[in-house]
Amino acid sequence: MADAPATTDVVVLGAGMSGLAMAIGLKRAGCDDFVVVEQSAGLGGTWWDNRYPGAHVDVPAPLYSFSFAPNPHWSRRFAAAPEIQAYMERCAERFGVRAHLRLGTRIVAARFDADAGRWAIETADATGRATLHARFFVCSTGPLSQPRWPAIVGLADFTGLKLHSARWDPKAIAPGMRVGVIGTGSTASQLVPPLARDAQRLHVFQRTANWVLPRLDRRYTALDRALARLPPYAWLVRRFWYHFLEWTRRGFDEGTLARKNMLHLAERHLRTQVSDEALRAKLRPNYPLGCKRIIYSNDFYPALGRPNVELVTDAVERVTPAGIVTADGRERPLDALVCATGFDTVHLLSSLEITGRDGRTLREAWADGPRAYRGVAVAGFPNLFLLLGPNTGTGHTSTLLYIEPQVRHAIACMRALRERGARWLDVRADAMAAYDAALQARLAHSVWSACRSWYRMEGGRIVALWPGFTREYVRSLARPDPRDYEFA
Ligand code: NAP
Q1: Most CB contacts within 10 A, which of 253, 292, 399, 430?
Q2: CA of 184 to the centre of ligand 1 (A)
Q3: Mean pLDDT of 281-304
Q4: Coil, helix or strand for 263?
């Protein structure tokens, strides 16, 4: 840390997909003066954190790669986590990002100095603390970086092995254990099948049933991989999946043909994969399709039907030192308890103190929930850009399609600032408020307002999702509107 330069043009927080995209974007724009600060010991972000068995991407991999770096090596359509991590490593190598990574380092605070037009960013690593000064600060931690433990009485007293899915220890769960999994979201749907194969007994505690659709997965053959090296073929495959997934976005709107098809497919999937009528009844969702993230899986339902697996739908009442007690008073003894209970998507960036130009912190600005102009800029916080910020999540397609335009937008803003010889640029409060009001009005009548999910706050405000089609978001970011920004 002591030898590192204390001044740089751009500091990027987080070395996940969005941080990596930003670093590559800067390189491709000719900027070499930046550092990427990452608290983990390696590159990967969510793919570094989520190493639970069965972790894989839930959109087709040809679309889960950067548009400028197609990957002909995918071994299957829905690639597993280690393959994605390897792809990220290759991209870092190919675009010369590695030398810019500062791993094992946390950002603990950042304060904007309006006179200097610079951020003072306090970092901490094993050797101590340091301050970095940067003109621009890019926060790319994403909404799925802070694991959420469930608020269940007695959880702290459990004496067995306790794991959150996003902080996995591959050696912790041994075959033959009695395992409990709390949660039945996307993560649980991926880790339940491998756990079911090895556990003596697996209890899956479901609070809400989810919509499950078939995963159109298949292995890529040598021929597929050879063809994927041909740019027109790779482009065609990518376009196909892009348009297919945009079509599934229509499925979130009542009365569409896409929705009718998806509902039909979900019912058929449940009927063909679950023969036991009582189990089927427990697995039928009681909220509209699409309100929570849809699960794409071919092995979740069959795993729940195994003789050593029990789907528990009685509410979890408390955790005891030895297991879980449900509302009917029954205790299930456990050797290991896995919380696949998702992420805190509301208190974004709350682990560091970010102070803007008027001395206000981001925490204060977001007291009523996170909000940002087009998901990328927050009024009062000049020269700060968010990647995968509030309301930029997608329930239907690859998040990389949203990251790339955000990176281009941030770089265009940096360029505009330089061209004007300005010290800082800040999104206008009225532009941000108008954007947010229109967005929330649109979301208020959407399918996402009809249930509890990580897309929403307790009070109902939807903080995570972009409501429209991808092309609409991409267009809205294509060129920063100078009237929406204030330059100093
Ligand atoms: P999640 O969708 O938020 O699911 C959390 C689960 O835990 C839900 O079933 C929830 O029940 C349950 N839960 C939470 N607190 C509980 C409590 N106190 N008592 C009982 N149950 C409780 O989290 P996730 O499955 O980790 O997925 C989050 C997102 O990550 C996904 O939607 C997806 O976008 C992303 N993801 C992506 C991939 C991929 O592409 N490879 C894989 C995994 C996840 P309720 O439904 O009743 O709240």
Answers
A1: 292
A2: 6
A3: 97
A4: helix
- The DSSP element (H or E) to which 369 belongs, if any, is none
Q: What is the pLDDT of residue 482?
A: 84
Using the mean position of ligand 1's atoms as its centre, give its distance from the Cα of residue 436 in Å. 26
| Measured CA angle at 329 (ends 323, 332), to 5 deg | 25
Residue 465 pairs in a beta bridge with 393
Would the CB of 183 count as within 6 Å of ligand 1?
A: yes
Percent helix, strand and coil across the chain, each to the nearest 5 = 35, 20, 45
Q: Which two tokens stand for residue 393?
A: 């999540």
Mutate to test the pocket of ligand 1, among 204, 293, 324, 396 (most ligand atoms within 8 A of CB): 293
**Ligand 1 pocket residue status of 393, Cβ below 6 Å:** no
Position 296 pLDDT exceeds 60: yes
Establish whether residue 486 lines the binding site of ligand 1, counting it when its CB lies within 6 angstroms of any ligand atom. Answer: no
Q: Half-sphere exposure of residue 328, counting CA atoms within 13 Å on the CB side?
A: 5
How confident is the model over 99-141, as pLDDT tens digits? Answer: 999 999 999 999 999 999 999 999 999 999 999 999 999 999 9
Report whether residue 147 contacts ligand 1, using a CB cutoff of 6 Å.
no
Residue having the nearest C-alpha atom to atom 8 of ligand 1: 183
| CATH superfamily assigned to domain 155-339 | FAD/NAD(P)-binding domain (3.50.50.60)
Which atom of ligand 1 lies closest to the CA of 151? 18
CA gap 288, 248 in Å, rounded: 15
Q: Which fold has domain 7-146+344-487?
A: FAD/NAD(P)-binding domain (3.50.50)
CB 465 within 8 A of CB 449: no
